[in-house]
């Protein structure tokens, strides 16, 4: 009986861990529309969440997102 409880606990823990690890990485590059120059320091967020990142010197970014459809919001303040 104890062995069955132990096995059931291990299987349950495996399924819970799998459910919470359903993420993917979205990568991309932010460019100015007219010149196609990279946008350095743009903020990329996942709409409706607190997850955010910034673009690198070459405009590239990477952000962890849940599986499914998400909306990325890009903001940039230039001078």
Describe the structure.
There is one protein chain. The strands form 2 sheets. A 3-stranded antiparallel beta sheet has the order 3-2-5, with no helix packed on it. Strands 1-4 form a two-stranded antiparallel ribbon. It is rod-shaped, with a radius of gyration of 20 Å. It has 1 helix and 5 strands; from the N terminus they run αβββββ. The chain is of the alpha+beta class.
SSE-based structural type: alpha+beta
Strand percentage: 25-35%
Query: How many beta-strand elements?
Result: 5
- Helix proportion range: 10-25%
Query: What does the radius of gyration come to?
Result: 20 Å
Count of DSSP helices?
1
Gap between N and C termini, in Å? 70 Å
What characterizes the major β-sheet? 3 strands, antiparallel
Low-confidence stretches: none
What spatial order of strands do you see in the largest sheet? 3-2-5
From N to C, what is the helix and strand string?
HEEEEE
Record keyword descriptors for this entry.
79 residues, three-stranded antiparallel β-sheet, 1 helix
How is the secondary structure organized here?
Layout: H1 2-20, E1 23-29, E2 43-46, E3 52-54, E4 60-66, E5 72-75
Antiparallel strand pairs: 1-4, 2-3, 2-5
Give a short overview.
With 79 residues, this protein is of the alpha+beta class.
């Amino acid at each position: 009986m104890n062995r069955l409880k132990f096995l059931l606990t291990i299987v349950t823990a495996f399924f819970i861990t799998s459910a919470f690890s359903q993420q993917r990485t979205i990568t991309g590059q932010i460019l100015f529309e007219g010149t196609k120059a990279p946008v350095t320091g743009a903020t990329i967020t996942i709409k409706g969440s607190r997850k955010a990142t910034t673009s690198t010197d070459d405009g590239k970014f990477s952000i962890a997102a849940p599986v499914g459809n998400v909306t990325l919001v890009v903001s940039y303040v230039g001078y």
